């Protein structure tokens, strides 16, 4: 266990203090204890000297050094009024952490290939990838490797020399805004980490060529699963994916030191891994909110039908704009109707159509089994 390099116990509802015994894990290079209920002082010895505030996000009762941007610890003699109150939760947390670490080690033994990829990820995050290597893994940017095209370029599939499947997003530098989009996406993805956000592996930047190398999502986009032939999602799958997206937005808006607004949330930017877990992608027009700011402005427009009215008319970027887009995507995911559908013209909006469809029963067949009359009336009221 002393040779452990990676430890991710985020979102596990852990409580108590962080054991100082973890300072003995000198090889630990990555730690994520975010979104738990941990309390007390963050250890300062051993590998903890190198961890940033991102390792402890959303643990409001933690205290520690000023560089972690959290509350300073109070005098220990005043804080320890009851030995049992402090010691017992600490012992329980140690047991829980040891159990979790043991389970991780056991999983690594049973799934060697998965463990190998997990171990390599921190190195791959900063991996140097040359233009020539990207040409090789995509067969010269051949159409047979082309997955699709977006607003600023094309997306290809490739396999790195160590066998890891990746997606290479090549920017069309002839398009206005492509340089800015590349810089924004690299900067955003290098500084955020969440299980529901697409993982960046590397960036390749030359004068006449710029590309981002990302983790490959084998099940493609939510857009495909909603509208392509021979693809379908049941209600529980749709709900699970929307929860994944909501978790990603919560992290972007509240889990980083400087809030991030995605600005272009839509089904095509929600990718699904082998387990159908949703990952938010495409940060090409994302914006950072300054400390204490609730809004900023931009001249870059998002996708029509998904952007908030104030974004489209005045370029105002707020976290509420992402929430608006999420509401549109959420509705679209369950009714399988695009907000730009030609049926929504004149006075008929997506919202009005949903309300009328619930009353008349003219909705997705899967939804009929899940919306009793009384619940449908409540949904209309909320709309």
Give the domain tally: 3
CATH class of the largest domain: Mainly Alpha
Number of helices: 12
- CATH topology group of the largest domain: Transferase(Phosphotransferase), domain 1
Q: Main beta sheet, described?
A: 5 strands, antiparallel
Walk across the major sheet and give the strand order.
6-7-8-10-9
> Could you tell me the mean pLDDT?
76
Number of strands: 16
Please give the radius of gyration in angstroms. 23 Å
In CATH terms, the superfamily of the largest domain is: Transferase(Phosphotransferase) domain 1
Main structural class: alpha+beta
Low-confidence stretches: 110-125, 291-295, 373-383
Domain Protein kinase: 141-383
Keywords: ATP-binding, Kinase, Leucine-rich repeat, Membrane, Nucleotide-binding, Repeat, Serine/threonine-protein kinase, Transferase, Transmembrane, Transmembrane helix
Subcellular location: Membrane
Protein name: Protein kinase domain-containing protein
């Amino acid at each position: 266990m002393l040779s452990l390099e990676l430890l991710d116990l985020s979102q596990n509802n852990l409580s108590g203090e962080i054991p100082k015994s973890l300072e003995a894990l000198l090889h630990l290079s990555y730690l994520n204890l975010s979104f738990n209920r941990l309390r007390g002082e963050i250890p300062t010895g051993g590998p903890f000297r190198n961890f940033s505030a991102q390792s402890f996000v959303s643990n409001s009762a933690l205290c520690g050094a000023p560089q972690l941007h959290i509350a300073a610890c109070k005098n220990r003699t005043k804080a320890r009024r009851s030995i049992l109150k402090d010691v017992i939760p600490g012992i329980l947390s140690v047991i829980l952490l040891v159990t979790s670490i043991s389970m991780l080690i056991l999983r690594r033994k049973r799934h060697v290939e998965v463990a190998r990829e997990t171990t390599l990820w921190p190195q791959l995050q900063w991996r140097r990838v040359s233009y020539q290597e990207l040409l090789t893994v995509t067969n010269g940017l051949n159409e047979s490797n082309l997955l699709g095209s977006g607003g600023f370029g094309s997306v290809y599939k490739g396999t790195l020399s160590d066998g890891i499947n990746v997606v290479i997003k090549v920017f069309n530098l002839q398009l206005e805004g492509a340089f800015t989009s590349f810089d924004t996406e690299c900067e955003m993805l290098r500084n955020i980490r969440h299980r529901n956000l697409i993982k960046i592996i590397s960036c390749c930047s030359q004068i006449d060529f710029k590309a981002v190398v990302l983790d490959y999502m084998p099940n493609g986009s939510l857009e495909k699963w909603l509208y392509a032939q021979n693809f379908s999602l049941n209600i529980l799958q749709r709900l699970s994916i929307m929860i994944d997206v909501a978790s990603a937005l919560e992290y972007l808006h509240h889990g980083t030191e400087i809030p991030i607004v995605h600005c272009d949330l839509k089904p095509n930017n929600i990718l699904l891994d082998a387990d159908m877990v949703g990952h938010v992608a495409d940060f090409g027009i994302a914006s950072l909110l300054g400390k204490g700011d609730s809004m900023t402005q931009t001249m870059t427009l998002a996708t029509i039908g998904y952007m908030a009215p104030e974004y489209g008319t005045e370029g105002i970027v707020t976290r509420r704009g992402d929430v608006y887009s999420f509401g549109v995507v959420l509705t679209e995911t369950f009714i399988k109707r695009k907000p730009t559908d030609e049926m929504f013209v004149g006075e008929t909006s997506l919202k009005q159509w949903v309300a009328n469809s619930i009353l008349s029963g003219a909705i997705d067949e899967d939804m009929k089994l899940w919306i009793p009359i009384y619940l449908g009336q409540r949904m209309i009221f909320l709309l």
